[in-house]
Amino acid sequence: MATQxxxxxxxxxxxxxxxxxxxxDLPKVCHHVGGRPMVCAVVDVCLDAGCDxxxxxxxxxxxxxxxxxxxxxxxxxxxxxxxxxGTGHAVMSAADSYKNADTENTDIFVLCGDGPLIRTDxxxxxxxxHRSTKAAGTLATSRIQDxxxxxxxxxxxxxxxxxxIEQKNASEDELTLNEVNPSYYCVNAKAMFNALEKIKRNxxxxxxxxxxxxxxxLDANERVEVIDAVPPEDIxxxxxxxxxxxxxxxxxxxxxxxxxxxxxxxxx
Length: 268
Hints:
Layout (H helix, E strand, L loop, with lengths): L7 E8 L16 E2 L2 E2 H11 L4 E6 L3 H7 L7 E5 L6 H6 L13 E7 L7 H13 L4 E7 L8 E4 L5 E5 L6 H4 L3 E10 H8 L16 H7 L4 E5 L12 H24 L4
Parallel strand pairs: 1-4, 1-6, 4-5, 7-11
Antiparallel strand pairs: 2-3, 6-10, 7-10, 8-9
Helix pairs in contact: 6-7
């Protein structure tokens, strides 16, 4: 369980995408990892980390996602993203779920539903830093040998977060950075929704990106923290059936290892 705090803790999980390279009409997050829809692994970790509620953003074939999560009952509420306009737009779609909430005293994990290798320990570290520093936003990052394709984390001379730079916009020096953004965020709800009101469509894609909120937080003199807490293996993405098989094998191996550990710790 994460650090005790009077703030409410929730999660927003992005699960509206189709996954066009999966060769299936099934929503990407409904493909099975470890014998069940992969989004279940993300929900489980959020609940294990202490979330009071999980808001799942659905869109494409949304009923199939709702059916996949039906066993969680009222621990989950749903928000609908009617158009696929990026991660920032997806989180905006959850705004109605917070109309009557005390957003100033609510912390939110913002995560992707297609990352089943996520660990409770990672979220705990992320939350602990976020709360201990009273940050408006905190990112958990990973350092990997080949950062190609990932947004790079740029730190200032004091090692603090400066910005996220996408590969296509990175300078030669920035391309050598191997600390990347795997999309694990913890944010103060009020600060996040304030920043979301300011983000603009990306000129190239026409989409709204959640990563832009951190720039606006810094501009508002709010604190943004970063922690290298995500094991490289955990950020493997699922974009094809081959990726799915690879991650399913890793996930099942972990399950066996966890069962063995629990068995060894049980008194005979």
